Amino acid sequence: MSTSPGTKGRPRADAQRNRDHILDIADRYFSEHGVSGSLDAIAKQAGVGAGTLYRHFPNREVLLAALLSARDNELESRRDAIRAESTNAASALELWLGALSDWASAFDGLPEPLRAATATGSSPLGITCQGYITTTDEFLHAAQREGSARREVRGKDLFLAALATSWVRGAAMADDFSAAALSSLSRNGWSTCAGAEASGSNGRTA
Amino acid sequence: MSTSPGTKGRPRADAQRNRDHILDIADRYFSEHGVSGSLDAIAKQAGVGAGTLYRHFPNREVLLAALLSARDNELESRRDAIRAESTNAASALELWLGALSDWASAFDGLPEPLRAATATGSSPLGITCQGYITTTDEFLHAAQREGSARREVRGKDLFLAALATSWVRGAAMADDFSAAALSSLSRNGWSTCAGAEASGSNGRTA
DNA sequence: GACAAAACGGAGAGGCTCTCCGTATGGTTT
DNA sequence: AAACCATACGGAGAGCCTCTCCGTTTTGTC
Fold first, then answer.
1. Which of A153, A163, A183 sits opposite B203 (nearest CB)?
2. CB distance under 7 Å to strand C: residues
3. If contacts are CB pairs under 8 Å, which of residues 126-155 in chain B contact chain A?
4. Which of A29, B59, B62, B184 is the most exposed place for a label (fewest CB within 10 A)?
5. pLDDT tens track of chain B, all 206 residues?
6. Identical fold between A13-58 and A72-188
7. What phi and psi, each to the nearest 5 degrees, are found at residue B191?
8. Is B72-188 a CATH 1.10.357 domain?
9. Which fold has domain A13-58?
């Protein structure tokens, strides 16, 4: 799984080389210009034709997914470290959400496609997100069993909250403090030691 | 304030007519296509040349700001209603945040430019946001005085949280429930009846 | 070395944003 | 009402972007 060419055996050597090289350049490029940077510019920087880039990565989302999957190991080892080191499920969950939020900050503007992919689901990015939502659920369930997390919260909601944290931090954000505030908000809410049960749905009023 | 042409007296009649008409069309168009829809298409639908559109609204952000300012009354009267009807500051704050979140959902994709404008500040959109942040601060301070909101939270953070709620609700979001979950998260956090003091900063780990 | 399959590259179609400037129009003045 | 000019109009087109198509080149195999 994961090398683009069709159904059969391994890709041709030049194809593999190009693919890897494009990935390298794209990583650097997105780091500098955000996820909205020009794909053609990436092709040019990589010294390949536009056709080559688009054959390997039919659209921006697929390219992003490939880029992120190259970083999978990092996040997964962080997950393992958290599991190993944490003494209680609540702080494990908190650390994991922080890790997710950092992950989603890998490139400027990344949270947006991640949210879109989470919503639609079936794309390669969506699969990736789904996996991490599952992990989030695991941490969350543990915390719930421990009694330190609310019952009505779902992993998906916390995942989105982590994305949102990263989104707030995004781009030209003048105030780095706000992201921390939001993640603290996600943990503690703004209400003083809330009435716990808080009913089910609020939010929309009209 | 607010009619685009330069420094002097009122604009020419045709200019005013075009401006209003463009605003009408743009409102409909953004409602159907989201804030990323094509500006040229709006000009065409409005039956004016691209130049005319861009003279009145030099860029997308300015157009959005004009569109939103046409809706100012709505949000402001909602604010007044909340002030009048609420019996306690906590629920007033909650209602206000809901109103903000609805406001930011006027068009698909609106939260993004709002966030960007909040960050950079000086644009017309930024001014608008700043005003609502101030209002948020008022509601928040009242709640803090009442003892029902945490001290360390700032209006700006709650404003961004409201935008984030709307952002999560955004576009193709398969799951409308998540937005409600996030706003509840913003109020109550995920931790059971938190240890209140929660220290200052957390979030970033690496 | 010869031959197909696989991959390449870049021209170009089509769409978007935004500018520029010759033309038309409103408002004012006589 | 005619003339005048500041103001506003429209749309061609420059420049950038995404993505496709297809003639040409490269690889791997026999």
1. A183
2. A 5-6, 8, 11-12, 14-15, 18-19, 47-52, 55-56; B 12-14, 37-41, 50-51, 54-55, 58-60
3. 140, 147-150, 152-154
4. B59
5. 444 344 457 889 999 999 999 999 999 999 999 999 999 999 999 999 999 999 999 999 999 999 999 999 999 999 999 999 999 999 999 999 999 999 999 999 999 999 999 988 889 999 999 999 999 999 999 999 999 999 989 999 999 999 999 999 875 555 678 878 888 888 877 877 554 443 333 434 33
6. no
7. -80, 140
8. yes
9. Arc Repressor Mutant, subunit A (1.10.10)
Tokens coding A84: 């190993």
- Cα separation, B62 vs A5, in Å, equals 45
Helix H or strand E segment including A55: helix A50-56
Residues 94-123 of B with CB under 8 A from A: 94-95, 98-99, 101-102, 112, 115-116, 119-121
**Interface test mutation site (partner A, options B75, B190, B197, B205, max chain A beta carbons within 10 A):** B190
Q: In the Cβ-directed half-sphere of A86, how many Cα atoms lie within 13 Å?
A: 18
Site of tokens 């079936």: A122
Report the alpha-carbon distance of residue A71 to residue B175 in Å, rounded. 28
